[in-house]
Design goal:
single chain, mainly alpha, 1 helix, rod-shaped
Length: about 80
């Protein structure tokens, strides 16, 4: 006749392993959520920085355009002054 003790030990071990696996899966899910949240934070920071850089570039472009316009105006006035 078969002893019940090894069967109970096997059943207890199987239960513990399945509980540990469940716990591990839950931990992996939580870690995945943390990583996803961090990735979204980093993405948002990168997008914000890109927008900031773009805005500064646009402002710089406008300033350069105004400087060139002023330079052309002054050059035009100098040419008119030289002609007259």
């Amino acid at each position: 006749m078969c002893s019940v003790k090894p069967l109970i030990t096997l059943l207890a071990t199987a239960t513990l392993v399945s509980l540990a696996a469940c716990n591990t899966v839950q931990g992996i899910r939580q870690d995945a959520h943390v990583v996803k949240d961090k990735a979204l934070d980093v993405k948002d920071a990168v997008v914000d920085k890109a927008i900031e850089v773009k805005d500064k570039t646009v402002e710089g472009g406008k300033a350069v355009g105004q400087s060139v316009g002023s330079g052309l105006e002054k050059a035009g006035e100098a040419v008119k002054g030289a002609i007259n």
